[in-house]
From TrEMBL, chain A:
Keywords: Electron transport, Heme, Iron, Membrane, Metal-binding, Respiratory chain, Transmembrane, Transmembrane helix, Transport
Transmembrane segments: 40-60, 98-122, 134-158, 178-199, 220-248, 268-291, 303-324, 336-354, 375-395, 407-428, 449-472, 492-514
Naturally occurring in which organism (per UniProt): Tectimicrobiota bacterium
Protein name as it appears in the record: Cbb3-type cytochrome c oxidase subunit I
Region (Disordered): 538-590
TrEMBL record, chain B:
InterPro entries for this protein: Cyt_c/ubiquinol_Oxase_su3 (IPR024791), Cyt_c_oxidase-like_su3 (IPR000298), Cyt_c_oxidase_su3-like_sf (IPR035973), Cyt_c_oxidase_su3_a-hlx (IPR013833)
Major localization listed first in the record, in broad terms: membrane
Name used for this protein in its record: Heme-copper oxidase subunit III
Species name: Tectimicrobiota bacterium
Transferase recorded as keyword: no
Domain of life: Bacteria
BP terms from Gene Ontology: aerobic electron transport chain
Localization terms from the record: Cell membrane
A GO molecular-function annotation: cytochrome-c oxidase activity
Amino acid sequence: MSDSVGAAVAVHDTHTGYERLGFVRTYIFSTDHKMIGRQFLFLGLFMLVVGGFLAMLIRWELGWPQTPVPGFGWLFKDTEGVIPPEAYNMLFTMHATLMIFFVVMPIMVGCFGNFLIPLMIGARDMAFPKLNMLSFWTGAVGGVIMLAAFFVPGGAAASGWTAYAPLSAVTEYTGVDWGQNLWCISLFVLGISSLMGAINYITTVINMRAPGMTLFRLPLVIWSLFITAILLLFALPVLTSAVVMLLFDRLLGTHWFLPKGGGEPLLWQHLFWFFGHPEVYILVLPAMGVTSEVLSTFSRKPIFGYRAMAYSMIAIAFLSWIVWGHHMFVSGMNPMIGMSFMLSTMVIAVPSAIKTFNWLGTLWGGSIRFKTPMLHALGFVSTFVIGGLSGIWMANTPVDIFIHDTYFIVAHFHYVVAGIIFAMFASVTYWFPKMFGRVMNEMLGKIHFVLTFIFFNLTFFPMHILGLGGMMRRIYDPTQYEFLQALQPINHFMSISALLLGASQIFFIANFFWSLFAGKKAEDNPWKANTLEWSAPSPPPHGNWAGSPPTVHRGPYEYSSPEVEEDYFPQNRPHPALTGAGSSARVGGH
Amino acid sequence: MATETRILEELGETKDLLDDVGGVPPRWPRGEEDDRSPFRDSERGYPSRNAKLGMAMFLGVETMFFAGLIAAFLYLRLNASEWPPASQPRLPVFVTGINTLLLLASGFTMWRVQGPAARQDSGRPARGLGMTFLLGTVFLVVQGYEWARLVRFGLTFSSGSYGATFYTLIGLHGLHVLGALTWLAALQLAAKKKRLAPHHPRVFLCAMYWYFVVALWPVLYGLVYLV
Ligand code: HEM
Ligand SMILES: [Cu+2]
């Protein structure tokens, strides 16, 4: 506990001021940022199972078109177990919607944002704890609404996660009535939840940092969450306004997106992608932040180019506002505008590449420890590189006009968005000891990583080939097209890989729950890391630090510092020369 | 605890508010302050207050929400061959102009309640709040009356993009005014009961929101009615 000195300068020097609360206020309506973080984690993991199941059904249909689904035929009674085309549309729509809005956002932003921000900046809680609780429960209601859509007549939304009008605006076009309305309502509600979270994050990061925690001493994951929150703040309301208009078109008979009353279908695309592109960075920035933490800790080296990392995230955030048109190259836009969207999109590769090279620079010459979180972080870096490279390629209008709406696009975004699951597993395995006070099993963790990494690539890499071969995305049965029949063996192979990828997750689920109840008790700082959360007990109590909250003396990445004997130097530990504990210090050389 | 109370006094905060905003912002040790940070509340060395900052961001959200609607409106309008369509009723420019002045006046009365001038005398804010509330209500009633007339003339949600944009934009602003009025009413009750000072954070926050709905209106009026 010698780490938490610095009481002299702290304001809260008497007691933490948190009394013991009953079951409901501890586990259900909790205002403790850590409990809210865990709630988001469980929400996200549950949705991951649902969304993953939908993906398996999609792959079944593509691999073995129009054959009854083994084991789940009862879901499609009318067609004797075969997935009907309308249901297929619903499956891919809801798969993407759930994965983006109810898995990656709740876990990477909701869970880790909540859990980490106060702990890593040395605060006792969020700036607005009650708002925080409200944010989770609003989000949960949004999730229930989204799932309820499966059970209304006509089924859930079936117009793609991008909900292009007029397909999404006219019930007759998809046959989906209330399913699409609930989709709009759910995203509206979820938007409110995310915005409450974003306001909380920004206020907390700006106002609640511990003494000494300057902006450029913030861990990069906090930088990433901070910038993510700013993106949310300014991008999400535009989606909210768009779903309101769509809902009005559907329910009140307005004509925002319907040509017959003077509306414009393309308007939806502009609004959606004005949100949509920042959204993909909302998803990926926290993953990048986590990766920076993990790579530095397990290389026992300072992160390479700390400031460049922070500035490149800021640059990404700015640029992501002016690139949305790259999703609309085939919409018939003015070629001059298309050209400027193409250029701005290519520019965004620069800060992304800066980050990648800095990660490589961090690894270079480090004494790397291949623990499970590290493996997953490396997995994220490698999938991100592949997805980023295909992105630059597609950003060229002439290329994109050829491959737009093919499986090449599907390959691209799975490498970047689905690749985030590696960052997610990295964060869960890295912070599990702090979250639940127990250590996860390394052996199971490694098996899970290796299988996931292999089957991930076997599932998604061939999509590039299919896309270039002309296979369109969102088709029900590729064998109906003569020119695709030769490619069917690839589809078959990918579907088998996908099923195995799904099955590999059993190792994670087993490891997670086994460790939760029976794992080895964790020390306070099992990875010998520098950031402040490791100076609190595992798991931290309500209020985080039993004594006074820490004071910060240096940046977060002082690994293998020549100034101390150990290979880490926690942010809250005063310099040995200052405290007189000179025995463990190697000062005086300069 | 003594330090906490002192800081509270310096900040003009009250304890009950603090329960909602997570406690006193930490004080930074001398020499370690982040001078480069643009987020400092200057002289006193405390970060700007949580509630104020949170409110400012919420207004940012609202701005983007309306920016989306306004952009969509302009997109449709600029692509339309005739605007307003020949067969559709015209909007009541004059009455709404007067109404605009009323709403602006309510912004002024709010500013009288809690703006810089109000900080000098410690008069109770309840009366000024009442005036603001009254002006806001009149604005909303006139809007509702004009709406009813337009509907009678045949302009509805479903009369093409002209009707759709009009009712959506103006209606959503009206809903925001309604929300702000509810808040004002609640605040006024509290101000009467607890004798809130004019610069109490609760008055301040409500005022920030009120200024937003007031400031948004001339933009909408200009774009939807005038041009
Ligand atoms: C190097 C940076 C990147 C570039 C240059 C890039 C470029 C592009 C382009 C041009 C498209 C449109 C292709 C089309 O529909 O024809 C696209 C689609 C997409 N990108 Fe990226 N991208 C980049 C990074 C990312 C990242 C980091 C993510 C997510 C974390 C992402 C997620 C997506 C998604 C989800 C779509 C498809 C959306 C849909 O149509 O459903 N991209 N990207
Ligand atoms: Cu994009």
